[in-house]
Task: structure prediction
Amino acid sequence: MITPRDDVALLDSYHSPQVDVAVRLNTNESPDSPPEEWTNAIAEALGSIEWNRYPDRAATELRTKIGALHGVGPEQIFVANGSNEVLQTAMLTFGGPGRTAAVWEPTYALHSHISRITGTAVVEGERAVDFSTDLAEVRRVIDLAKPQVSFLCSPNNPTGVVDDEATVRAVLDMVIAVDGLLIVDEAYGQFAPWSADVLIAEDVPLVVSRTFSKTWSMAASRLGYLVGPAWIIAQLEKVVLPYHLDAFKQAAGTLALAHVEEMNERVSRLVEERGRLVARLSELDVDVWPSGANFVLFRPRSVDGSDVWQRLVDRSVLVRNCSSWPRLEGCLRVTIGTPGEDDSFLSALEEALQ
Result:
């Protein structure tokens, strides 16, 4: 009987629990739906799709409008089915057998997982005590492993830490010194005060990945993209499957970009609500980490985190249990929801901590 590759057989699948609860705050989705105008426009666009024809393979209109958002041309934009496929394509292109990717834990688990499923070896460093990027540790790992690909996640998932420009520049210099590629994952980038896309240039081995799932309220569409030098985008296009991005998804993303103002307003509301939630959490028997994203990491002090997670589920509230992640024993991560959802979470948490 056929068996999978040995390295695949040893992997665990990545997933978030899907539980039937009243308040679901475990996957960092937007609590708000897209604008009604977008919904109406996408319904109208549905009727104009030529379903018997393949979609625009180059996704020209979508890439052009995303590029305009970042001040670049379409030749510097790569689009795919969610930012995870973006990252997978990057690793299929620049990773693979005999090559290495570097991550600094705790961070987004898919960076290591995607690397491994593409046959890329993974070397792991650690973040500082406060979960910020430790430049001395970054240098140790890069000097030792000389990775072809290095990952930074900013704001970092699940800790919420944002790397400032000086930090990213320092890491980029180290990556350049070993002829590597730096991937900055900005899935939550709109919540941060700056973006690494300002560092992108044709002679700089840096790419920035983004998603429509969070701030654009389009998790159901599975649409992501990458901004980078044109020569890197051209290499990714060689690897991705033909016609991988369907016509409906291209239309959905293109129409969403007509609502940048509404997206920014949504981000502002969530940032304000995040501040309220953090203030309330700080009054409870938990340790709370500062966040630059649409989620907050916390650790109960007197009750085991996994027990608190189950008690929350029993009260029909679902958050993310991060206890099994590196250095996050007892930690839970809560997505910023609506004020009503957050109040339900806080009330359930107060009971769960008793």
